[in-house]
Amino acid sequence: MLRKENVHFRKTNKNTVVKRVREVYLRNDIPCLSTQCPKEPPCHEVVKVESSLLSAEPAYYLVPDYSVALRYVELLEQEELTNIIFTETILQRLQSEDKSRTYKSLRQVVKDPRRRSVVFSNEHCKETNVLREPDESIEHRDWRALVQTAAWYRRHLHGNTDIILLSEEFKQEDVLRIDDNNAGIAVMNLREYLTKFWPKTAVLHELLTSLKEAILEEDLENKSQGSIIAKKGPSGTGYQEYKPLSELEAGVKSERFFQGVMRVRANHRDQAFIRGDSNIGEIVIVGSDHRNRAVHGDVVVVELLTKSSWVAPSTHISYNPEEVHAAAEDDEQSSSGVRTSEVKPTGRVVGIMSRNWQPYVATLQEGSEKEAGSFHLVLPLNPIIPKIRIRHHDAKVLANQRIVVRIDSWPVNSQYPNGHYVRSIGPAHDLDTEISAILIEHGISVSQTTQGFSEGSLKEMPINTPERPWVAEPTELAKRRDLRNHIVFSIDPPNCQDIDDAISIKEIGNGQIEFGVHIADVSYFVKENSLTDLEARARGTTVYLSDRRFDMLPKVLSEQLCSLRHHVDRYAMSVMWTLDSEANVLTAWYGRSVIRSACEMEYEQAQGLLNGKDVVPGLDATLCKQLKPSVVLLAKTMRKVRARRMAKGGLELESSEVKFKFKEEGGGISDILPKQPLEVHQIIEEAMVMANGYVAQRIYQGFRESAMLRHHPPPIESHFKMLLRAAESRGFSIDTSSNLALANSLRECASKSENDIEFVKLLKTMATMAMSEASYISSGSMGVDKYAHYGLALDFYTHFTSPIRRYADLVVHRQLMSCLLGATPQKTDNSSDFLKNGLKMEQVAGHLNYKNRESKLAQKDSTELFQTLYVLQKTRNPAAIENGGNDPDAEDLPFTETGIVSEIRENGFFVFVPRFGIKGPVYLKEKSGEISIPLSALKQSGGSEGGGVAGNDHLVMISGCEMDTDLMTQISVKVPPHALGSHASSPNVKVALRLKKSLAHRHTIYMTLIGLDHQGTTASADSKLGLGVSAARGRHMKGHSGRLFTKAGEQLKQDELKRIAQQDPSLAPILQRDLIQGIQEGQHKQQEQQKKGGKNVRKQQPKGGYVDPEEAYYQSRPESSLYNLIESFDRFRIVESNESPASFSS
């Protein structure tokens, strides 16, 4: 090793000269990182470096200079460009000039094994280090360093591979001035390179043109800003300049400023927020001026505004349906998850620590293609991202297309950020285009979405063809426990191809049971740090969408050799337990095995056997007879295991999953089916949980500092507000002090609400929403007391059971095998440094957490996309179809369904339709401020069967209404007395599902109120409080009538009912009855009395139960106990007017 000094002098601001000495330690063993290395052994094996390797196939390697790396990074990110050598010279300069975003982008290219790109440490290599000469510019010194590196590669590889230097500043003659022996070294600008090597790849040429236009625009703006610097405050048209970094860091340290990730509220784009410290809480940033050019996801520094400027976060539903599309994310991002009117601190952005600019899917603003000029505004598909100004020579080509754009800069005097066009992905609202847009938005790579694996990865795959089928090797079989004589079976959804897990269970005498969970042995086929392994690590997980999936592994593994198909030998990793009669574990064995599955069962088939059927569809009688005892024994055993875990605090949570049924001919969706819970789902889930828990304990014994575990922290207490409020409305109390207390509370609510399944589901769903996100951790990153999984009530947990579709499971398999090969449980074999390195394992865990989260969000977006397509099918008018969809007079058909009011807001409420798993807004207050409800909502029946609407009452809006909101509790609507209809009660609303169509954004679903749903409602004493109409008359009033819309499952509090009963003992018999039912019963009795000659009778009720709206308010008497009941219930207000309060309670 040679020490070298680089000495240079620099003049300071005080006109003093400072000598600076930079020591560099030079080495002669820096590896070339090329598979063409002629040395034996190759230099990358002598000095271990965790990196991909340059491949041997291409005829050239690329070496970009600073001008290309800085300004054309998007081109270098394109997957067509491979075998790129990024020099240490360029990366160090990017870091020194604070180009962190560009630096990170290039590092991501290197991390992607498919790109076969490397970082060469030329500054530390004795043969490539270059000193800066006196009076030499940095640019020229760096160029000499790149030429020296190119010449070294030519010599080192014996001239077998050419080197192309990519530069926008230097030319071929600039190499001649440095090195006369430049054979095999070519200098090209990007246009020349693409023309020669990628002449037919239009995407790359279009991107280059777009980047050049963006660079030209940026240069012009920089020149113009040299003479005019806009420093206008919030009242002007410009933004504030950011404060210097030193001032920002000092301000954050002194708590004068606050730093955090800025999140824009999806439901209200004018509001953003960051999470301050524990004292200040959430800081709201109102308006684009105070946001000061920050974009969603940026790490910003915020200065608090004066208290007089503090505001309450918006609590109304946005009138822009594209914003409502992501409204649910607001609660997830907000610190409390609950909408309140509490005033919160406000602030303004005074600096940005790091940008989160990403590729954005966007659409050209309508009409831009008709305008002259080359500058155009595009609207990102995600409405929380501002419009972006791009430059394109032919806007007509981009019209009605989904395109990918990137932000380049946001000048202080520009209303919108400047960006550039990257590529087009297809026509807007085309299914494949929208799927591609979802994948791009969630960072899922192009190669994964096209099912493409690198050539090197495919070469590592075993051969399995009809001509040469794969067979298990005898030498490998001898190393494994042979379980082929056991009855092994898998239970999965229909048509499952990637079968990760199988089960075996049998009685072995003395009341003991042998129970085994067998998992595909992917680690046998995918060796650590192989190309396939690196590619699987980059992908992180298989991505499942509504109509397709994108695999983590090549199909020869995921669907064939690793998948535990029946009637073939398969390698497995097994956990085998010996259990006693009460399912207590006596012994546990871990190891590699070989199995032969007897059957690939579907959930419905297994449930049929469990229900006592001797034969189920799809399985022959002999096989059913063989499998039924095992399925029954498995169920009995897992029930005991599950009961024991639940007793320790395991939670039974709820989610609204749906699946889509597609038409076989002509495409389209034939139906949306809610997931039907079966007991066999819980049984298989419990078996997998048991295996994961035991494996977690075992790998922790061998890898105390780097075990890959699954961590689920306790929820934040404030996230339970909605759950507590909903439970209180039924007289229940929820204890959230621990998972055991929460589980017991939920079970108590369920046991006392046996006839109210929807309410129980609602509580479980709200509990699920309150949960913190589970994540992967490296065991060394936190104390052992923090490992626990809150939701499952386990001290140790990991993911072991799905290595075909999750990379974390593959890591766990390797750690488990290393433990098993060790001499003692606390020791491992000579496992790789990667498995033992806690820091590296923590980095992998962070990467997998990101990939897992984005995969789930992509799945959620896919579900919403297909729900939208289904509503589009149902509402499309045949007349419009016949006219090519362009008939302006063909209105959409009504599509009505029953829904549950799930959330109250100031101007309406959200309705959840369980049938389709769709949530959408219902507006009671128009954007103009006018409050109105449809006439159909005031009648006995709001709709007809079969999704239609009876009559046109739903189109007649009752105007002149007033509304008062008690957020999260109720909305009181005062309806003019002439509009009142009959009196009824129902737990659900009838809504019409409608579609807001948009070119720039995805179509979004919203709803309009139709009326009440009376089907299936009962008059039992314990029926839940639902939607109803009450009538009452005050002592000094002509009368009142009210309508009540509630969240599912709402009921009077027990203490309130007791208080009412103490005031009027005659009401005691109805303590357990629904309030609205009681009101109706009281009305009915009064009406019967009036028919017999009671006072104040204006007109008898017509046949059929219909009440004339104009006469409704004469039907109740102030002396009745019913009036006292309403008066005593403090959530309902009786207003002395001719108007009628109607309440929408939550």
UniProtKB/TrEMBL annotation:
Record's keyword terms, sorted: Cytoplasm, Exonuclease, Exosome, Hydrolase, Magnesium, Nuclease, Nucleus, RNA-binding, rRNA processing
InterPro entries, sorted: Dis3_CSD2 (IPR041505), NA-bd_OB-fold (IPR012340), RNase_II/R (IPR001900), RNase_II/R_CS (IPR022966), RNR_Ribonuclease (IPR050180), Rrp44_CSD1 (IPR033771), RRP44_S1 (IPR033770)
Domain RNB: 480-822
First-level EC class: hydrolase
Catalytic activity: Exonucleolytic cleavage in the 3'- to 5'-direction to yield nucleoside 5'-phosphates
Basic residues composition-biased segments: 1092-1101
Classification via Gene3D superfamilies: 2.40.50.690, 2.40.50.700, 5'-nuclease (3.40.50.1010), Nucleic acid-binding proteins (2.40.50.140)
Keyword Magnesium: yes
Basic and acidic residues composition bias: residue spans: 1082-1091
Molecular function, one GO term: RNA binding
Record EC number: 3.1.13.1
Subcellular location: Cytoplasm; Nucleus
Chain spans, region Disordered: 1080-1113
Any one GO biological process: rRNA catabolic process
Cellular component GO terms held in the UniProt record: cytoplasmic exosome (RNase complex); nuclear exosome (RNase complex)
Top-rank lineage group of the source organism: Eukaryota
Cofactor(s) named in the record: Mg(2+)
Keyword Ligase: no
Matches recorded under Pfam families: OB_Dis3, RNB, Rrp44_CSD1, Rrp44_S1
Stated family: Belongs to the RNR ribonuclease family.
Entry protein name: DIS3-like exonuclease 1
Lineage of source species: Eukaryota, Fungi, Fungi incertae sedis, Mucoromycota, Mortierellomycotina
